[in-house]
């Protein structure tokens, strides 16, 4: 791999509500408006915000930079907030308190933040706001909605060391929603036949293809046996629909460390067994299962998310 490729950082854009638990002040904003929200934040700007759902993942990603070998891509996290710079002071104070190396930020005073994702060169956008996520996806950016909840404790690998573990659904996330459309129109038998007939035809990339590429570049800079990042495909597919997926990843030159073909089984317990720091899926049903065990990001993309 060329040095110019390795040097490109992995860039994650994140909203303040995904990084920190801001639900109390957000509820106040919705109930009483911007003036009450601003007064609340100014009065508490020295009070440290508690971690939000994405905090453990962000902390672990940024920790990679501390002891990264020469030539390994760094990870950069960009904060995107609809706070004003004035009310956002509490957010930055909390970032500093928690020792997070986040230096770039945008405060929009209520305006949408998604237009700034591409100028920052972000490969992934995580937000608690579903509309911002939908707009980002419409503009070709990998994005997921993180529903507010308690931050999930980081997982440790089998050797007792902290390791970043990221899991993906396949159709409508890593790949396009072709398979889901066939399944909806013709049922599981039609889907199995469709995939069998096209086993040697690579799937088209979905909204998370670019993020997966960037993540793979970061993984490839480490020896396989000591890579601090582990990835998994966790899909409802089963044989014979597995072959096309495997051949597609081979065509892309992408390594996924684990592949779970569950044939419709609930994903949550398997994600817990994998120790996922985060899981991405287009199905709200699968997200509901996953959220009982791990942090989960809903990707509102594809036929399953279209209004009737």
Overview of the structural elements:
This protein is an alpha/beta fold. The chain folds into 2 domains: 3-146, Rossmann fold, CATH 3.40.50; 164-305, 3-Layer(aba) Sandwich (Rossmann fold). 36% of the residues lie in helices and 16% in strands. It contains 12 helices and 10 strands. Strands 3-2-1-4-5-10-9-6-7-8 form a 10-stranded mixed beta sheet. The longest helix is centred in the middle third of the chain and has 20 residues, at 178-197. The radius of gyration is 20 Å and the shape is globular.
Number of domains: 2
Order of helices and strands: HEHHHHEHEEHEEHHEHEHEHE
E-strand count: 10
Distance between the termini: 46 Å
Summarize the topology.
Blueprint: H1 3-6, E1 10-15, H2 16-19, H3 23-32, H4 34-43, H5 55-63, E2 75-81, H6 89-97, E3 104-107, E4 124-127, H7 130-138, E5 143-146, E6 164-168, H8 178-197, H9 209-220, E7 229-235, H10 242-252, E8 258-261, H11 268-274, E9 278-281, H12 284-290, E10 296-298
Parallel strand pairs: 1-2, 1-4, 2-3, 4-5, 6-7, 6-9, 7-8, 9-10
Antiparallel strand pairs: 5-10
Name some characteristics of this structure.
308 residues; disordered N terminus; 16% strand; 10-stranded mixed beta sheet; alpha/beta
Summarize the entry for a quick read.
The protein is of the alpha/beta class and 308 residues long.
